[in-house]
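@channel anyone free to eyeball this complex?
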Amino acid sequence: MTNIVGIDLGTTFSSLAILNAIGKPEIIPNADGERLTPSAIFFDEEDAELIRVGIEAINSRHLNAQRAVRWIKRHMGDADYHRTIDNKDWTPQELSALILKKLRQECSVEHGEINDAVISVPAHFDEVRRKAAMDAGTLAGLNVIAIVNEPVAAALYYATTRKVSGKVLVYDLGGGTFDVTIMNVEDRQMDIICSQGDHALGGIDFDREILALLEQNYKEKFNTELINSDEDRAKYEDEAEDIKKTLSRRRIAKKMLYGPAGSMRMEISREMFEQAISSLMSRIDILLEVALEEADIKPSGIDKVLLVGGSSRIPLVRQRLKKMFGSTPETTVNVDECVALGAALHAGLTMLREKPEQVPAGISGGLSDINLTDVCNHSYGTICAPIDKETGRRIVENRIILKKNTPLPCQASQMFYTVSKGQTELEVTITQGEDKAPEYVNKIATNKLKLPPNRPAKCPVKVTYSYDLNQRMQCSFEDVESGQALEVDLQLGQNDQMSQCDAKQKKADHLELFKVE
Amino acid sequence: MEKLLVKTLLSWLNAFKFPLLCRKIGIEVPDISAQADLNRLNCRVRLTRQQKNASVVDVLSVEICGSIHAPDNGQYTTVRILVTDITDGFSTPEPVRSSVKKWRQPDSQNFCYNANLGKLPHAENTLADWLTVAKLPCNWLKLPHKGKRILEFNTSILSAAGGQELASGTCTFAYENSIFAHIDLQENIKRTKTFAVALAFAVSAADNKLYDCEVELIKNWARNNVALSKATKKERRRLEKALKKTVAFFRIGNQINCYNICKEVVEIAPVADRYDILGLCIKVAAANGTATVEELNLLKNLAHWLEIDTNRFRQMMEKILPPNMHQIEDLEVVLGITSDMSKKQTRRHLNNEYRKWNSRVTSLDPKIQSQADYMLTFIAEARSAYAG
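replying in thread with the prediction:
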C-alpha cells in the first residue's frame, strides 16, 4: 500500500503524519518515541559519516556548537548561505534534507517505504524557497508531490476534525515564522481568501529577547559578559527557550546563570517578558491588520481564530487575540502537530487528483468530500517600459498580471506594446513580487520572443499568465499581429534541466553516504 | 555671504556663457506718440487684442506712414516685415523665429512676413496717417528669451515684380514675453545642471566637511553632464577651474542660499530634471557611507523646495540612501510619518509600509533583504511608540 505522508518541516521542530486506512492523519513518532523531532543537526566528532538529528543534536550543540546546526529553515533558498563542516559545504537544502531523511527512515521502519510526500512551508515563502524545500525533500529520497502552506494545512486539519464554519483566521506563530491565513469554511468546503506572513517572527525571536535580558542583567551585576563562546550561546539559547515556555505556564521563571564572574539567580516575570517582546507583538498586530485589510474584513467579521504553532501558547498572544476579535481563540487541537496532520490530508487530496488509482478506497472515501480552494501566494508580473506620467521619461517597471491572493485556478491577460520601430526581439521576464520597481521583485524566468522585422513601434503583445491547482504556472507572450508566441511553463520542482536533475541525483546519492540517526 | 555666492556662480556661469544672469536691458524704447518724419518711411508697432474663437489673443499691429518712392506710377508692391531681438544691444541681435512655416525665411526658421500691399498710385507717395500693414498674432513669433524683450521691426516696401526695396523703416517695440523661449530652453538646461552642481556641493558641505569621495562624485557628474561631449579642451579647462573654485568656496565654510536656487530651478526646469538634481544630491549624501543630520535635513528641504512628490522622494532615498546609512532615523524621511497624522492614520500608513517591506524581504538581493529586515523592525518599533 502506498503511504500518503505529510511533513511539517519546521524551524524548531519537524514532524511527519501519515494517512491511516480510513483517511485520518496520524503523527508517526520518531525512534525516540517523540512525536516532534527538533530540527537540529549535529555532525559527530568521532565518526565523520554519522549525523545526529533531533534531541541528541540539541544536547551535543552545548558541547561543540561549531558542528551543530539549528533553525536552518530561516536560510532556506539562500544561495549564499552554507555551513562548512569537515571541509564540506552544506547548503540549507542539504541540511534540511538530513532532517527529512531522519523522519523518513524512522517512519519507514514501522510503516514501510515512504516515497510520496507533501511538505509544508510558510505561506509567505516565494518560489525560490518553495523550490528549495522541494529540493530538500528530493535529496532526502522523497517524491515531493506538492507543497502546502502551513496555515492552509492547519486549517484543513481543523476544519476536517472540528466543527468550524464561517470566516476563519488561522494564526500560525511557529518557531521561526508567523503566518496569517483568512479563509471561508462551509462544512468541508474551504476557500482561502488571503495569506500574509513574516519570515523572521517566531519563537526564536522571543527567545532572543529573553537571552538579551539574561545577558543584560548579568552584565549589570558583574560587569562581565555572560556569553563567551558559541557553546555558552547554545546553552543560554536553550535556557531562554525554557524560560519562555515556563512563562506560558507561570507568572515568574527562575534560572541560575553560571557566568565567568560568578553565578546569579535570575527571575524573569511575565511582565518583563511582555515588555521585551512588545515590538515583536506590534509586528504581529500589523500583520494581522494587513491580512484583514487585504481580505476586506473587520475583526468582528471573523467567526473563529484557530491557533497553530508552539509560540501561540504565549498568554499575551491569546490575550491580544481575544481583545482584537472579541472571542477566545480555538485551541482544541495540538498546535504543534496540526500542520503535519493537515499536510497529510493535503497529500491525500493531491494523490486523489493526480494518481487516484494509487489511493486506497478507505482513504479516498475519507477525503472525498473535502474541497479546498487555494490562492496565488504571490503576485506575478512582467517587466515593461512605460512612459512615466510625471516626468515624461521612459522607465522600467514591473507590471503585475496575476495578483496575490487570486483564487486558483486563475488566468489574467494584459496588453503591452513594442517600444521601437523595427524591433525584432522582445525580452520577456516573469517576476514574482508586489513592487513596481524591478529591483524589488524576483525574476523567476527570462526569455526572448522573436518578432517579425520591419514593423512600426507600438505593435501589441498579449501577455497571459495562468496558475492551476497543482501550482503549475503557464505564461504566454503573444505577438498579436503575427500570432508568434512564446510559452513558458513553470512548475515547482519540474522546471529543472536534465543536467540539474542528474546533479541532484548525485547529491542525493552523496547524502546516502551519511548515516543519519 | 550672499554676494560671494553670486560672484562664484556668476564667474562659473560666465565661463559657460550664460547670458541670463548677466543681461541688462540697455535699449531706449522710443515714444511711439512722437511726431513722424514724413520725408521717409516710418513704422510703429502697437499691441492690440483680437478675439479668436473663444479666446482673446495678443496681436502686434504694424503700421507705417511717410514717403515711399517708386520708379513709376501704379507700381504693385508687397510689404516685408523682419523682426530681431535687440534686448542685449544693437550690436548683438538675436533672431526671432517663426512658429508658422509660411512666415519663415527660405533658409532659416527666422521670422519673415510677406504680404501683398497693393498698387501705389504715384511714383512719389506720402502716407500722412498711420496705415496698418500687418496684424501679427504674438504666438507667431518665437522669441529667444522670456521676460521683457526689445524687438526691432524692419518694415520694407518692395516692388512686387522684382523685389526691389522702395522704402524701409525701423522701429523698436518693448514686449513682455511670459513664456520660455527657444534660447532660454537651451540655457535653462545648462543652468539647471549648474545649479545641480551647486546644490550637490551644498549637500556635501552641509556638515562642514567636504569628503573627497563626495567632491569626486560631483566633479564626475559635472564632467559628464555640464561639459558637452563636443566641448573643447579650453572649455573643459574652464570647467575644471570653475569646479576647483567652487570646492574652495565651500571648503572655507561658505554657504549658499539653496532655497533661492531651488526656487529658480522650479521655474526653469522640468520635473524630470529636478529628480535628477535631487538624485545627485542624495548620492552625494550617501557617498561616504553615512548621511549626517545636516545632510538629511538639507535633502528633506531640497525635496520640498524642488517640489518633489514626498513619496517619490522617499522612494529615491530607499534606493540610494537606505536608513541604515542615516545618522538619525527621521520618521518622516524613512517612514513618511508626519506630525499632523492621527494615530489611526499613522497606523494605516505603517501597515502599508509594512506590507511593502514585507514583500521585499524575500528579495534574492542580500542588500535589499537586509534593508527590508531593518525596515520591518523599525516599522514595528514606530508602531509601538507612536500608534500602539
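from a first look: The first helix of chain A runs from residue 55 to 61.
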